[in-house]
Write a structure and sequence with these properties.
It contains twelve helices and 14 strands. By secondary structure, it is of the alpha/beta class. The protein has one domain: SGNH hydrolase (Rossmann fold), CATH 3.40.50.1110.
Length: 322
């Protein structure tokens, strides 16, 4: 059996666990009581390499295109701070009574990793606390919110709130993940890599004062178009929906993330190899990778729980029992 075929077989089992429903049922997160398979890095990388050879939508694509936008894997209404919120009663995943305390902080690109991290938290008996606010990255900067048409001062106050809670909790590990694509400092004014690095350095410095090990999860590539919409229009020729890796990462601040992590003694975890080779394909195996242009589906993120855990182990950051 080829690595691709083996992955497809495992994905079929995983999909059944993740979805727990048919496409005709009401879309939404369907947590599984069963653990997700821990796919090894070699198998994931092999599937990524073979993804560009897929030229039409495979049968049994999961999540289905029509429900992809709802494939979050957690209750976003309850667990993420809304636009006007400056504080939140955080959601706790994994083992609420666990002695190993882990915090996930960031915007929607932090919540995007929850499906994988919840699997790890269950295995390692983490008490996983999530502080997340969409469009509110962790760097200590005042961002411009394009939807609101003004400075996102609520983000500044939420960041301060979360940092104070983390300082008081003194967790074992803090994971930080953000979207740097199209971050704005003002109307029509992009946040520079230098500013992003400086802001993140300040945030990481304060987080490390809690005594926690801190790890920055690198930003994910951005497709040229929303995956579900593009694939729906080009089901017989999905090559149209591919994005070169160079284009998909051109506007990301991953170099700045890594530099800030290095400057503060934090860890940095690049994730591009789990998603793209020379091109970023929106379908890997029989799994839809992106639920829009920017964010991973919960189905694919959950599939990456094993490689994420192994990467944290290599960084000496996977605390708690395996």
């Amino acid at each position: 059996m080829s690595s691709f075929s083996g992955l497809a077989a495992i994905l079929s089992m995983l999909i059944a666990l993740v979805t727990g429903c048919t496409a005709s049922e009401t879309p939404g997160p369907h947590p599984s009581a069963e653990p997700a398979p821990r796919l090894p890095l070699t198998q994931v990388l092999a599937a990524v390499r073979q993804a560009p050879a897929i030229r039409s939508l495979p049968p049994g694509l999961h999540p289905p295109l029509v429900t992809a936008g709802q494939d979050l894997g957690f209750d976003s209404d309850r667990c993420e701070a809304g636009p006007s919120a400056t504080r939140i009663d955080p959601c706790v995943f994994g083992d609420p009574a666990g002695s190993t305390r882990v915090v996930l902080l960031g915007d929607s690109h932090a919540s995007m990793w929850l499906p994988a991290l919840i699997e790890i938290a269950k295995r390692r008996h983490w008490q996983l606390t999530f502080y997340g606010k969409p469009a509110c990255p962790a760097p200590d900067l005042t961002f411009w919110n394009q939807r609101l048409g003004r400075a996102f001062t609520e983000c500044d106050r939420f960041r301060t709130f979360a940092e104070e809670k983390i300082q008081a909790a003194r967790p074992d590990l803090v994971l930080v993940a953000d979207s740097s694509y199209a971050a704005k400092a003002g109307p029509g004014e992009s946040v520079t890599a230098t500013a992003w690095q400086g802001g993140l350095t300040r945030t990481l410095t304060r987080l490390r004062r809690s005594g926690a090990r801190v790890v920055v999860i690198g930003d994910t590539p951005v497709l040229a178009a929303s995956a579900p919409e593009c694939l729906a229009s080009h089901a017989r020729n999905i090559v149209t929906c591919f994005t070169t890796a160079a284009a998909a990462t051109a506007r990301l601040a991953n170099a700045a993330d890594e530099a800030a992590a290095r400057a503060t003694g934090s860890g940095y975890l690049p994730v591009r190899p789990w998603l793209c080779g020379t091109v970023c394909a929106p379908v890997i195996g029989s799994t839809l990778v992106y639920r829009d242009q920017f964010d991973l589906t919960a189905t694919y993120a959950r599939m990456l729980n094993g490689v994420l855990e192994s990467a944290l182990v290599r960084l000496n950051a996977a605390v708690g029992a395996p």
